[in-house]
Amino acid sequence: MLKNKNKSLIFIIILLTLLFLYPLWSNLYYKNKISNCENFIDRSGTDVSFQNCFGLINIDKDKISGYYRIWDDKHNYNVVSILDLDQYLLKDQKIYIYDKLDYGNPQKYFSTILGDGNNSELLYLRSFLKDGNLENFQYRSMEEIPSYFIIDINTGEISLYKTYDEMLEEDKIIFKEIGDNLN
């Protein structure tokens, strides 16, 4: 009987120690992760959780939609949202992202209707950092929107490709690796 009480007491002490240490460990883990970030903007809260960051690039998860949002913190804009962390790969100070554009209703995330009445036109709007400036791009259809993104994590500069055939051979190898991870 005494041995069982001792075992129970040891178990309770270990459990209380773990409950006490977990918040400390969690806080150190978080601080260690953000130490790699530049211009870090903490968007964590009730509906958003921090996932990771690399240079200027910050990845969080929207708990409501389930999307992982990839932010450029220096220029404070959402570059792209993806469904799965396997859709990106970090290599040589660049983050390679494949966006399948297959989530829900993408129109509600970046579309607008220009004009009025019979002359209105649906446009898909996106902003990307090109040549040091945040530029707005308009696409007339979902098929025109880029699916492949390469972001320099130190500058935020982005290369955009709609199709696999448009990109450089060395980039094709990396995007093939992402594709293999998704299958």
The main pleated sheet reads as: 4 strands, antiparallel
| Tally of strands | 11
Strand order of the largest sheet: 1-2-3-4
> Globular, elongated, flat, extended or rod-shaped: what is the shape?
elongated
Total domains, how many?
A: 2
Please compute the radius of gyration using only Cα atoms. 22 Å
> Into which percent range does the helicity of residues fall?
25-40%
Keywords, separated by commas or semicolons:
11 strands, 183 residues, alpha+beta, 34% strand, 2 domains
Question: What does this protein structure show overall?
Answer:
Helix content is 28%, strand content 34%. By secondary structure, it is of the alpha+beta class. It has two domains: 1-35; 36-182, no CATH class. It has a four-stranded antiparallel beta sheet with strand order 1-2-3-4, with no helix packed on it. Strand 1 and strand 2 (57-62) form a beta hairpin. The longest helix has 33 residues, at 2-34. The protein is elongated. It starts with a helix and ends with a helix. The model has no long low-confidence stretch (mean pLDDT 81).
